[in-house]
Design a protein that fits this description.
3-stranded antiparallel sheet, 137 residues, 49% helix, alpha+beta
Length: 137
């Protein structure tokens, strides 16, 4: 009697249906597709933040007095060495105040997602010469 009951329970355990497996596969595929579209701009922004931190560390004494051209040259070299893509390259803004200089790199990236749907990502990075250790927060 006991073995017949165990055999019947084994017959009822069928596992994942084909429809459920296809749904899981499509879900995983969509997540991977989305990640391949969204991660590269965010990685570029991480590199921009690191570039601003590197600028602050290597020019700590004269950061407030650096010209826009020298800041731009430094950042362009950093972008080239680290493979930062084009959307960031021309978005440098230097604002001088009495007690500090603000270096801003604010930009948007538009990525074609699918069909007529685009993703727009906005990044704001700012380096304050009076607080170089608090860069990009």
């Amino acid at each position: 009697m006991r073995t017949i009951r165990n055999m019947n329970s084994l017959k009822r355990q069928t596992g994942v249906s084909m429809l459920m497996a296809l749904t899981i596969l499509l879900g995983v595929g969509f997540v991977l597709f989305s990640a391949f579209k969204v991660i590269p701009p965010h990685y570029d922004n991480i590199l921009v933040e690191r570039g601003l931190k590197s600028l602050a560390e290597s020019n700590r004494a004269d950061l407030a007095t650096m010209s826009k051209r020298s800041i731009s040259t430094y950042m362009q070299k950093y972008y080239t060495m680290n493979g930062v893509r084009g959307a960031v390259r021309n978005e440098l803004n230097v604002e001088r105040m009495r007690e500090k200089t603000l270096i801003s790199i604010n930009y948007e990236v538009r990525v074609e997602f699918m069909a007529n749907i685009d993703l727009v990502m906005k990044f704001n990075n700012q380096l304050d010469s009076s607080k170089p250790d608090e860069c990009c927060k």
